[in-house]
Amino acid sequence: MEVPVPALALLLSSLRPDLYRKMIELLVEVRKDAGITRIELGRRLGQRQTFVSKFELGEHRLDVAEFVTVARAIGADPLEIIRVAESESC
Question: What is the dihedral of CA 49, 54, 55, 59, to 10 degrees?
Answer without folding.
Answer: -170
